[in-house]
């Protein structure tokens, strides 16, 4: 073995000669001058003590020795391109991969339509997959790479995750259009006297999305607790006496369907922020960096999202969760 004397760049020359069967075309494909290509080919011939490629008519045909080496060289070059070079950069227009996001059903409603539009224009070979999992599983999924990002209002995110704010949500209260007990406004007295739907991913009211109401001293009668935002209008359709306090953007979607009315809550309710979270293991992963930049660039002005895809921001501000 005298591998230390072989310039591994010459394998690219060998590979190009097999593909093109022409010195000039192979040189162009590698970005070399014809003189440099001929010099490299001569070095290959000297190393293997064989002509490797000989002129037959208008083509440079491989010798028997070159034919015997072909499969190994192709395998090496394929490994370099797919597993080494691909890790150094991410080219969305050429990539074929599935990105996985942990989010709620509300997150799907908010995030997926604009993201699908961006992917269609910028990364047509890539797809999206969503997971809705208990909070305690999020860190493990991000650490293993099974999920690329967790997106949403994760109030008690694990300490080890990075996070970045995307935008702020405000709350409104919704009621069925068939509810005749509520006039043009919703008073605190009426609000506290009615039954409520509460959305909590964990099943605990202390960790519900609208816990801020209790923090403001509001007393509610909870009729049902669910981890699914999209169940809210369905429950209201069957039980018109129910109320729910949900993010404004979600309420507007429900209102457009003509099944609910929106009201300002009876007390001021602070906004809450929607973040993207990722694991430090993938902080510098080119594909995940690209995805984070797309998320930030797409949603930083939500709900005023442009329908025209444009290049994502060069850098995103990354901070660790506190």
In short:
With 322 residues, the chain is of the alpha/beta class. It has 11 helices and 13 strands.
Structural summary, described in words:
It is a single chain. The protein has helices at 9-20, 23-30, 34-48, 64-88, 105-122, 135-144, 188-193, 212-215, 231-238, 248-256, 286-299, and strands at 53-56, 59-62, 98-102, 127-131, 149-152, 162-169, 171-176, 195-199, 221-226, 242-247, 260-263, 272-278, 319-320. The radius of gyration is 29 Å and the shape is rod-shaped. 40% of the residues lie in helices and 20% in strands. The strands form three sheets. Strands 4-3-5-12-6-13 form a six-stranded mixed sheet. A five-stranded mixed sheet has the order 9-8-10-7-11. Helix 1 (9-20) packs across helix 2 (23-30) and helix 5 crosses helix 11 (286-299). The chain has eleven helices and 13 strands.
- Would you report the number of β strands? 13
Biggest sheet statistics: 6 strands, mixed
For the record, give the distance between the C-alpha atoms at the N and C termini, rounded to a whole number: 55 Å
Q: How are the strands of the largest sheet arranged?
A: 4-3-5-12-6-13
- SSE run: HHHEEHEHEHEEEHEHEHEHEEHE
CATH domain class of the largest domain: Alpha Beta
How large is the share of residues in beta strands? 15-25%
Give the full name of the CATH homologous superfamily of the largest domain. Answer: Periplasmic binding protein-like II
- The number of helical runs is 11
| Count of discrete domains | 3
Q: Could you tell me the CATH topology label of the largest domain.
A: D-Maltodextrin-Binding Protein, domain 2
Percent helix range? 40-55%
């Amino acid at each position: 073995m005298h591998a230390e004397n072989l310039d591994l760049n010459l394998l690219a020359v060998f590979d190009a000669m097999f593909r093109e069967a022409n010195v000039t075309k192979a040189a162009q494909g590698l970005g070399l001058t014809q003189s440099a290509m001929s010099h490299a080919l001569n070095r290959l011939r000297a190393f293997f003590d064989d002509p490797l490629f000989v002129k037959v008519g208008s083509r440079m045909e491989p010798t028997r020795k070159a034919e015997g080496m072909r499969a190994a060289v192709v395998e090496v070059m394929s490994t370099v391109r797919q597993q080494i070079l691909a890790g150094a950069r991410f080219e969305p227009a050429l990539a074929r991969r599935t990105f996985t996001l942990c989010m709620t059903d509300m997150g799907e409603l908010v995030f997926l339509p604009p993201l699908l539009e961006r992917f269609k224009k910028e990364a047509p070979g890539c797809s999206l997959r969503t997971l809705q999992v208990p909070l305690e599983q999020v860190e493990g999924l991000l650490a293993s790479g099974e999920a690329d990002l967790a997106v949403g209002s994760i109030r008690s995110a694990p300490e080890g995750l990075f996070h970045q704010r995307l935008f702020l949500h405000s709350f409104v209260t919704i009621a069925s259009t068939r509810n005749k007990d509520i006039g043009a406004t919703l008073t605190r007295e009426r609000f506290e006297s009615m039954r409520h739907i509460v959305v909590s991913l964990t099943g605990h009211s202390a960790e519900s999305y609208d816990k801020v109401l209790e923090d403001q001293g509001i007393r509610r009668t909870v009729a049902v607790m669910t981890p699914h935002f999209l169940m809210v209008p369905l429950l209201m359709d069957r039980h018109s006496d129910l109320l729910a306090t949900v993010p404004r953007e979600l309420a507007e979607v429900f209102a457009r369907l003509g099944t609910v009315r929106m009201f300002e809550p009876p007390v001021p309710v602070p906004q809450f922020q929607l973040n993207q979270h990722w694991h430090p293991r993938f902080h510098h992963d080119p594909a995940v960096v690209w995805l984070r930049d797309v998320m930030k660039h797409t949603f930083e002005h939500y709900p005023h999202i442009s329908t025209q895809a444009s290049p994502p921001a060069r850098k995103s501000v990354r901070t660790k969760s506190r």
